[in-house]
Write a structure and sequence with these properties.
alpha/beta; TIM Barrel; Double Stranded RNA Binding Domain; 3 domains; eight-stranded parallel barrel; three-stranded antiparallel sheet; elongated; binds acetyl coenzyme *A; binds 3-methyl-2-oxobutanoic acid; magnesium ion binding; amino-acid biosynthesis; IPM_Synthase
């Protein structure tokens, strides 16, 4: 069996919705929807080993902490694990008063009653009933006519109504899902929902939740939006219904469908954290919420410590959050490639001079710090990286702010290391490459400063007098110049024949790295006019500059200049 040359023999294009005057494309979302987490139900029913009570409890507590106010806690009639967890949650009295728990049931009398049993006594609860309504399910699963399928819903609604009335300790609310809504005839879905509403008699003050699932995502998200707008416009007594979305991700557009569905008039979104759920998963609540956040809308869900959320979700689901998952994935704020690194580094630098809070860092749609992520992982270095990459890492890790021209000088050292190792370079690798390239904080070098003193002559010139180890042999040397740096340059020239001409010098205080307080950078030309860079790091800024000259001398020697 292979892919068909003519797939139209097997698959039909999804029909358009007849809604020429659709309004949703020009609407914008200005407020967050109501959120329902179905992690403990749709998510849980789709994992290899469904959660035990301890895991469900841990997940429940996480959802409460994040700020989710509506939580589908399970499918109580599925078995003892589910029922006991829900009953235990209720009996423990730990469900916060502002949180409403929800359970799912097929529209079958015994299952509905078990569902009410599981929640009886809780302050407030939603019983969520479903039955499939679309042609394939009617024909294949139920082998029933439209009217018979409609009757399943009506019968179930009557049992819900009666069970609720018989258990007055709880504030019961109702939810109905015409399962497979997205592949059903719209007018039939409306007819079934209207029939359920006729039984349950919702009002604007006590509305029913009508949840419209894309049980299997079968079309582009604009079609789902059309379906939602059509449904909202044509449902009688619309004010008595909260319209809820429940999208799946079979075509990879579950989040888009939910967003367009909100534009089309829905009030509520069901989904799972990081998109767990049947098959390709449910709509990811984290993504929808943070998409709103990046548009300046407070989603009402708090992902300030997203790594802790991921840790719990991964533990409970026993599924990893993909490294590229929007907002949460380990790599989603990381740039390896040179041009991205360059732009991000400039973006962060611009923020330091910018005088407002507006986020404008290229390639980063959100400030990772808002999600509790630090900036260290924003730029990582491998063979695809550029100067901005290692410069960022050296600055973050060691506090070194390499002059731009020195970055270019150091780049081939990093590139060589990345190519040789054939893997990502971590901060320690880059620091090692830097120390090797500029003979910084290493004993493995030709010229090694042991000690020195500086004095001023009567004519204003400076005298450098010190001990320098040359290939392991200590030598007392001295030289005179207009300043400390030039006196060290003169010393190296007079004592060892090293020709260096200083072109540029810069220094800065260090906030990171061992005990060092200052870094000095020296740009020189060697005997043949070639550029040579030196770097010195020391607690004392003057000594750092002396070290920078020796660093340049060592580099000159390595690169074949001025054999001493
Ligand atoms: C889209 C969704 O995610 S819906 C949620 C799905 N989640 C789950 O199914 C997880 C929990 N489910 C379970 O543990 C089990 O399915 C149970 C305990 C609820 C029921 O188990 P069983 O009694 O063995 O029934 P099963 O699930 O196999 O369903 C088959 C029967 O239910 C009927 N049925 C299916 N859905 C519905 C419904 N919504 N309303 C009424 N009847 C239904 C089918 O037509 C079939 O009937 P048949 O045996 O006469 O052909
Ligand atoms: C029960 C319903 C809401 C469901 O999970 C689905 O259709 O995907």
């Amino acid at each position: 069996m292979t892919m068909l040359r003519d797939p139209s023999r097997k698959y039909n294009p999804f029909p358009q919705v007849d809604l020429a005057d659709r309004q949703w494309p020009s609407r914008i979302i200005t407020a967050p929807p109501r959120w329902l987490s179905t992690d403990l139900r749709d998510g849980n029913q789709a994992i290899v080993d469904p959660m035990d009570s301890a895991k469900k409890r841990r997940f429940f507590e996480l959802l409460v902490e994040i700020g989710v106010k509506e939580i589908e806690v399970g499918f109580p009639s599925a078995g003892a694990t589910e029922f006991d967890f829900i009953r235990g949650l209720v009996d423990s009295g730990t469900i916060p008063q502002d949180v409403v728990v929800q359970v799912l049931t097929q529209s079958r009398a015994d299952l509905i009653r078990t569902s009410f049993d599981s929640l009886d006594g809780v302050h407030a609860a939603v019983v969520h009933m479903y039955n499939a309504v679309s042609p394939a399910w009617r024909d294949i699963v139920f082998r029933m006519s439209q009217q018979e399928v409609r009757q399943i819903a009506v019968d179930g609604a009557k049992i819900m109504r009666d069970e609720a009335a018989a258990r007055p300790r709880t504030d019961w609310r109702f939810q109905y899902s015409p399962e497979t809504f997205s592949t059903a005839e719209l007018d039939f879905s409306i007819e079934v929902c209207e029939a359920v509403m006729d039984v349950l008699q919702p009002t604007a003050e006590r509305p029913i939740i009508i949840n419209l699932p894309a049980t299997v995502e079968a079309a582009t998200p604009n079609i789902y939006a059309d379906q939602i707008e059509y449904f909202c416009r044509n449902l009688p007594n619309r004010d008595a219904a909260i319209i809820s979305l429940h999208t799946h991700n079979d075509r990879g557009t579950g989040v888009a469908a939910a967003e367009l569905g909100l534009m089309a008039g829905a009030d509520r979104v069901e989904g799972c954290l990081f998109g767990n759920g049947e098959r390709t998963g449910n709509c990811c609540l984290v993504t929808v919420a943070l998409n709103l956040y990046t548009q300046g809308i407070d989603p009402g869900l708090d992902f300030s410590d997203i790594d802790r959320v991921i840790e719990t979700v991964e533990y409970c689901n026993e599924l990893p959050v993909h490294q590229r998952h929007p907002y949460g994935g380990e790599l989603v704020f990381t740039a390896f490639s040179g041009s991205h690194q360059d732009a991000i580094k400039k973006g962060f630098a611009a923020r330091e001079t910018q005088n407002d809070e507006k986020w404008r860092v290229p390639y980063l749609p959100i400030d990772p710090a808002d999600l509790g992520r630090n900036y260290e992982a924003v730029i990582r270095v491998n063979s695809q990286s550029g100067k901005g990459g290692f410069a960022w890492v050296l600055e973050q890790d060691q506090g070194l702010k390499l002059p731009k021209a020195m970055q270019a000088d150091f780049a081939p050292h990093v590139q060589r290391m990345a190519d040789d190792l054939g893997r990502e370079l971590n901060a320690a690798d880059i620091w090692q490459a830097f120390r090797d390239a500029y003979y910084v904080q290493t004993t493995d070098k030709h010229f090694q400063l042991v000690d020195y003193e500086e004095s001023r002559g009567a004519d204003g010139t400076r005298l450098f007098a010190g001990t320098i180890e040359v290939a392991g042999q200590a030598q007392r040397v001295s030289g005179r110049g207009n300043g400390l740096i030039s006196s060290v340059v003169a010393t190296l020239r007079d004592a060892f024949g090293v020709e260096l001409e200083v072109q540029d010098y810069s220094e800065h205080a260090l906030s990171k790295g061992s005990d060092a307080r200052a870094a000095a950078y020296l740009e020189c030309t060697g005997a043949d006019g070639r550029k040579i860079w030196g770097c010195g790091i020391d607690e004392d800024i003057a000594t750092a500059s002396v070290r920078a000259v020796l660093s340049a001398a060592n580099s000159a020697l390595r690169d074949g200049d001025n054999p001493a």
